[in-house]
Amino acid sequence: MAPSGEGIFGRFLRFIGLAGGIEQQFGAVPYRHGAEGLEFLLVTSRRTGRWIFPKGGRMPFLSPSDTAAEEAYEEAGVRGSVEARPAGRYRDIKIRENGETMIEVDMYPMVVEEELFDWPEKDQRRRRWVGLDEAVILLSHPELVAIVKEIAACETGEGDA
Q1: What is the domain count for the chain?
Q2: CATH at 44
C-alpha cells in the first residue's frame, strides 16, 4: 500500500528514483551447465510465491558480490563462484507491513558448484532449475529477462540470445 496521501504520482516518482528512499540490494543469478544445457536456479518469493532470484540488503562486512553469494546460500541452498561485477540491475517495489519501499538490485552471475540438501530458508521457499526459455516465461521483470539472456549469450557463445 502507498503511504497515506502519497497517491499514484508520488509512487511513480519513488519508482523512477526521483523521490528519495531507494534501498540498494544485491542478488545472485545462479546457473550451471546441466544435462539439458544452461540452467538457471529460481526460488519463490516468501510473500507471493512468484519465481525470482535470491536477493537481499547488503550485509555488514561483506562486499556486494559476497552479499549476493550469501543470499544464494540462505534462499536457494547453493554455493559457488560469484563474479565481482554485476551483470545488470533492476528496480522493483517491495511491499512490507509498514508500506512500500523502492529497491534497486544489482544482479551478480553465480556458477553453482554445490547444491545443499538443507539451507536456512528451505521451509520458506521452493527452488527450481529451468532452462533459458522457461526462465524468460517465469521471471516477471523485463530487466531480469535481459540479464538472463545476456548471461546465456556469454556462456553459450551465441552472441545475442
Answers
A1: 1
A2: 3.90.79.10
